[in-house]
Queue: 2 jobs
Job 1
Amino acid sequence: MAKAYLVGSGIAALAAATFLIRDGGFDGGDIHLFEQQERTGGSLDAGGTPEAGYTMRGGRMFEAEFRCTYDLLSTIPTLDDPSVSVTEDILAAYEEFGWDDTARLFDADGEITDVRSMGFRASPASSWPSGATTDHTSCPRAR
């Protein structure tokens, strides 16, 4: 069987590995990730505690419009319940707790930066429509 060697362990490499398993018939043991950093995940390196809360650098951009990401995650079972996909788990957590991001970008002094001048929308995640992430028809596999 062929082997795959992926540089980095960010979302691109993790997605590539998942697609190789799901669509390419690869065994996970035949996929090798090379990461320079101590932590895997690139900008999706989550951390925290139940008491202090959790953060994920890339999580601030985990928006309802990421249909292909949710399609990808819909094929991955959660560790707690393999009958529940990661997408279902994320959506359930959003329904239960919501996301309370107060800003997208902070300056060096910790002050919120107005991102509208950079082309970003200023609306918080809480304004996204409920269930907006369930339509995966814009993904290549879902067509």
Job 2
Amino acid sequence: MSKESSTGKKLTIKVDKEEKLTIDGTEKKIENLEADFFERLVDKALADEVDFVLESKGIVGNFFQTIQSGTAADSELRKLYEQTLADSKTTDEADSKSSEAQESEPVSEANLESETEVESAPEAEEF
């Protein structure tokens, strides 16, 4: 799933009774759509950023109906998507707190010695 999918603007997918596909008001041929479009479509649908207007029960209409139902609020995919977002947010917050704690830790001689072990140089032998 692409992070760039969330633009705030809803995408409108319409399949009319004659199986004519329009995307945001522009007529498209399904065979001309690329895999990248479908990946972004699923990402946006999972984020509730797609309005589906499906007037047809034909092949094209059923195809987009499958995407709509597969990304609906009660779908398994949506549940996994939301869990992944929640897990990612929790991990990011934990990483952020860990970084803040390390940055705010006072520097002491003991901390420096444990972080950078200094090997002592061998003493020169006297002849």
